[in-house]
Design a protein that fits this description.
Length: 360
Amino acid sequence: MKIGVIGGGQLGRMLALAGTPLGMNFAFLDPAPDACAAALGEHLRADYGDQDHLRQLADEVDLVTFEFESVPAETVAFLSQFVPVYPSAEALRIARDRWFEKSMFKDLGIPTPEFADIQSQADLDVAVARIGLPAVLKTRTLGYDGKGQKVLRNAADVEGTFAELGSVPCLLEGFVPFTGEVSLIAVRARDGETRFYPLVHNTHDSGILKLSVASSDHPLQALAEDYSSRVLKQLDYVGVMAFEFFEVDGGLKANEIAPRVHNSGHWTTEGAECSQFENHLRAVAGLPLGSTAKVGESAMINFIGEVPPVDKVIAIDDCHLHHYGKAFKVGRKVGHANLRCVDQATLQAQIIKVEALIAE
Ligand SMILES: Nc1ncnc2c1ncn2[C@@H]1O[C@H](COP(=O)(O)OP(=O)(O)O)[C@@H](O)[C@H]1O
Ligand SMILES: [Mg+2]
């Protein structure tokens, strides 16, 4: 089976690493000459709106999926005429726009921060008066790794901020005084069967994910699964979806969804029976889902900007290096380490060792 992937970054690369043993082949559509997934399949180097190359991709593959949510809606609509595309155009439409996303949470009775649609500085001033400060202004589309957003703490922060974010449609959200951030990785098959990985605790630095630790018997697991199930059913979703939540007042508030494999699920490569990457491919290909059970205690640490010396990373016990083969650049995700240990005490000790290596 040949899978077409829109986007050729590290998520595409890891999909191919998981799908190749299942006998799958891959083609990646990505305009970047140095797309790091290209090492693992065919690289169609073209813009996402290039209909000749989209047609070529559709002719060559059995189905198309994607590794980022900002794929233009027209690209998905065009491809869908010729080849199955999973997840659906509708799932993408909702997940790529924070206004649609939060409106859906509200309609489904899922708690979420207070929010308002912002089309002008005047809208922002009105919304700040209603929601209060602190608050977070985010562009409705195209934001990632904390880009395209600004925390507003006082009146001076509010002034001129709409223009600062590019005078594009935005969302204002109430600032959530969260005690923690967790994410749930779910996979839903074509027949509706749904499985969940254990909740993951996430720590961010300047908006970029730094550390994910998989939990055991998290008290909010059932609640997170309930909220997530509502979304998956509503969208008749197929594939892996990630749900980011704030932990607050002993409950959860939904932050955002990602209609794809997710950084906070990378630990599943060594830490679960079947990884998020393999399960995504199983789901979109109409194959039976794999077990989401955790194997040992797991964590993932991102390498941002550079990967420490390979020999030093792999010299750490229980440590599995994932190097994306990308050029090193400040603020860029270029690799990660997965730790899989026999118990929590060992895991915490090994996390400290990897963090010390990053700080060297
Ligand atoms: N409403 C909020 N209240 C408090 N912190 C927030 C809020 N929205 C975002 N953040 C912080 O910023 C991070 C990135 O925001 P997010 O909306 O997840 O955007 P991205 O698409 O960049 O991941 C979150 O993980 C969280 O730490
Ligand atoms: Mg996020």
